[in-house]
Amino acid sequence: MTFWGHLDVLRMSLYRILGVLLVTMILSFIALPHIFDRFILGPTDGSFFLYRWLSALHGVPFAPDFGDGDFHVDIININVATQFMKHFVLSFWMGLVLGFPFVLYEIWKFIKPALFPNEEKSLSSAFVFGGVMFYLGCALGYCVIFPFAFRFLTQYQLSELIENQISMDSYLNNFLIIIFMMGLLFELPLMAMVLSIMKIIHRGFMRKYRKHASVALLVLAAVITPTGDPFTLAVVFIPLFLLYELSIMLVRPAPKEEDDDDDDDPRNNWESIDDQSEEMKEIIGEPASPSPQETPGQSQG
Q1: Second label for 82, Cα 20 to 30 Å away, from 36, 45, 106, 120?
Q2: Cα dihedral sign for 291, 296, 297, 300?
Q3: What's the gap between Cα 111 and its chain centre?
């Protein structure tokens, strides 16, 4: 296929992606008013399921006070057009989340003709795994990360004379950033598997730079979480570190690691010694020793 042919295929893939995203956005726009109060604003009330489950953490240092069953935060709007515009913004992001598996499928479909059969099989499983991990990351962001961060920030007081009034813009911006970023960060194993199949990274490389990656993930966790308390930071960092360890298990081993397994076999060492002895006999002019298949009579003849 020519270069322009590839561009035509890419253009059709983009058209299909945009068409599916348009459909999911329209469906999200219609459904949003019915789920906004219970789903989007769920973490603003003490009846949120995570708060009820973690009410036993009352009094734990650095942890938000989940024992307060009367917790409630009123979200205010200070701009005339904010609710109208946020309806479209939320519909776009919800449509993107719903249509993300199709986006992965179109990417896979575009690169599939350039792959070898073994690479095609490995990458097909990797992309399915990536779609599942994306939704797990979004679920973790909604169910754990955002409620922790939101409750800590709303209960933190510099002075009792200051009353917190959370705007709709502030709430939704943090809501979308944390949830969508967690979904993308859970694509780390998929990215590692793809780079491994392309022979860019391997297991030994990731093990060698584990300490450097831990520091980078800790900094990334600090950037994602709007709070600075160690408890919420640990809630974000631990899943990211576990994802890195999972990536190490999924990537291919280094070629040297595979060769080392063969070198450890003592039979290979004896075969190497025999080969070297035969070569030395040929050099000095001595007849080579008969092979096990040859009889003494055949070797003399």
Answers
A1: 45
A2: positive
A3: 20
